[in-house]
Write a structure and sequence with these properties.
about 60% helix; mainly alpha
């Protein structure tokens, strides 16, 4: 381990004192991405698209 000069030691202790409050704090939680369409309308849209696809497959088979 390298020896520290008195100037480095003072700088390190100052840095440690300044950052004691930051250590151990959780990181900022990322916000959830908000979709512009409500969940109900999303389910209705998926139902219509999937239902239309199923009806088209039935039409092609028969």
């Amino acid at each position: 381990m390298a020896l520290q000069t008195p100037k480095q030691r003072v700088a390190n202790s100052k840095f440690a004192k300044k950052n004691v409050g930051k250590q151990g704090k959780p990181r900022d939680v990322e916000e959830k991405v908000q979709i512009p369409v409500s969940r109900t309308w999303l389910f209705v849209l998926i139902f219509l698209v999937v239902g239309g696809g199923i009806l088209e497959l039935i039409r092609l088979i028969f």
